[in-house]
Amino acid sequence: MANPNQDARTSQGRYTRTLKNTERDTEAARLHAHGYTDGMIAQQLHYPSTSAARDGRRKALAEITQVPAAEIIALEVRKLDMELVRLEQLERDVRKVLDAEHITVSNGKVILDPRTEQPLADDSPILLAADRLVKIEDARRRNAERRARLLGLDAEQKIAVSGAVRYEVVGVDPADLA
């Protein structure tokens, strides 16, 4: 029997993934999820061996996880971008509160400073706005950390160190050691 995948070879004789192979491997992954063994999958989908069915199933699963992972990362980055826009608007609103003049009101009446007979300034909205700014900055920091993790910017880096170490004992004549 002729090899059905003969057309799926490169000029160097290596197999390439064709649409037909990809579809068959995807079907193998689906069947495995439904409880089929690799032997049953090989027989039903005409793989040359059980191990070929297993390899095809694994290739399909690897492709399934890689493509959506990139899409999920892009979606999460867009969400982080939208969060930053929302935080910027919130900061503008909070800064308006900081810039406004606030007077103390109690039971619907303006409280006057007894020394100056002018409306008494109310610091509580300013303190609350300052507290809100701190929380906004904290949210921005968490956003940046999340973005760095998603994009792999905080991933550990491997550093190769090579060379030799030479020990020298000072004050000892090498001839005395022999």
Characterise the protein shown here.
By secondary structure, this protein is an all-alpha fold. Helices cover 58% and strands 2% of the residues. Strands 1-2 form a two-stranded antiparallel sheet. A hairpin with a 2-residue loop joins strand 1 and strand 2 (109-110). Helix 1 crosses helix 3 (50-99) and helix 3 (50-99) runs antiparallel to helix 4 (124-150). The mean pLDDT is 86.
Proportion in β-strands: under 5%
Contiguous low-pLDDT stretches (5 residues minimum) are: none
Mean pLDDT: 86
Helical element count? 5
Total number of β-strand segments? 2
Number of separate structural domains: 1
Quaternary structure annotation? single chain
Helix share bin: 55-70%
Helix-strand layout with pairing:
Elements: H1 19-33, H2 38-45, H3 50-99, E1 105-106, E2 109-110, H4 124-150, H5 174-177
Antiparallel strand pairs: 1-2
Main attributes of the structure:
mainly alpha, 58% helix, 178 residues, 2 strands, single chain, two-stranded antiparallel ribbon
